[in-house]
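Structural prep section.
Before we set up the soaks we want a predicted structure of the protein with pyridoxal-5'-phosphate in place, mainly to decide which crystallisation condition to try first. Input record follows.
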Amino acid sequence: MLAAETNRDSFELPHAQHFEGFTVNYDELFTDEQVNMPLLRQRAFNLRWAQQPDDVLALTAADPDFPVAPEIRKALGDYVSSGVLSYGPAEGLPSFRRVVADTLMARRNIDCTPERILAADSAASAMFVIARYALRPGDEVIIFDPVDFLFKASAEVAGAKAVLCPIDSKTGAIDMDGMRKLITPKTKMISVCNPHNPLGLVLSEQDLRAIGEMAVEHDLWIMNDEIWSDIVFDPVRFVSIASLSPEIARRTMTVCGFSKHYGLAGLRIGFLVAPTDEVYEGLVAVSTAPTTAWGAATLSQVGAQAAYEHGGSWLDAFLRHLTKIRDYAAGRLANMPGITVRPPDATYLLFPDVTAYGMSSTEMADYLLEEARVAVVPGVAQWFGPGAEGHIRIAFPTSMAIISEALDRIEAALAKRAQAFGDVSRRFLPRAPDAAVDVVVRFGQLAGPPGLRP
Ligand SMILES: Cc1ncc(COP(=O)(O)O)c(C=O)c1O
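Run finished without errors. Recording the tokens verbatim:
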């Protein structure tokens, strides 16, 4: 049975199931003991455990600390032990494309066929392909601020300019009239991050409709990044912009991947969904897949296919675990003086406002690293846009033991800082106008070698 057919929206899978002759209790896969720290210290890069000193707790890149689902490991192992690792089809394995199309139709109500799914070597690379297809030098693309840096980076790789539409980080409100005013004759695309990294926001159907209608009215493309759409907490419901109307769907190119919910970041696997055959052909040509210079590894597609086909019980248990951690961590942060935090509706990211402590995001991240021995991602323009300043990003796809230890340490460090600084609960310092520039320069201290991402 497809994971898509066992949509968590409708009913829950049993917590224990038979797998390979054993009974697996999926909830037990998310206990403290399941986090294999020696292996993570060797293998988890991108600002995470392998790049931090041994006494530092890494709540940095959005990448789960738990071993991947047993069903995925089995599929990967079987494929490798069969011994044949030939070239695959340039556009992806037929079985992978079929399972992705079936899943999107069943779970997201996206009208698609396997022939319009292009396997990609990550969501990031799929975003770059869309940008190269839709944009020309000098074009403008509207992106949110804050938002993951890939939105700006993908616009710029095509020679286009990213124009920022603010989201209120406290309320999650998007100024739709403001977005409308950003449209000029140069605007070619609106890029949507839904659910939203780093705010943990699920866009409302009303906002999505407004964006879709704007795109129809002004003949714009929509880049629709749904990589977080399977990490959504009850009772919030996710709606895909590609499902809203045929007119909106026709101009929407959807991106998704397997790094966030199934923890397959190291397999570099994702896909693109094209709205029409013509767009599909264009995307394939731009990707250079037919030359074999680009494309998803067959092994990665096998793992991702197993995730969609057989990973539903594991994912449900992961969500139950994340819900507990979200509630615990957001509650604890909210009780720390001077910290404002919105519990995320989706993602495993917290994005607290720390301005009351009179430090820039980078200064706070540096301080927590030094004083608490906890690594977080500073809300700097380089990673999330200028609207992120004053925040830090804390990723929590880890064990309760690690999160509670990290929060104990953060709380103690903040109390120490508050003592030195005065009553933080009453202080809300104005931002220095050059803060964003300053912190980009300073971020090098935490970021390590260039080319890494949170
Ligand atoms: C919104 C968003 N899009 C894309 C990506 C990149 O995912 P991938 O690992 O598949 O390149 C991320 C990773 O954090 C993300 O948050």
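Observations: The radius of gyration is 21 Å.
Flagged for discussion at group meeting.
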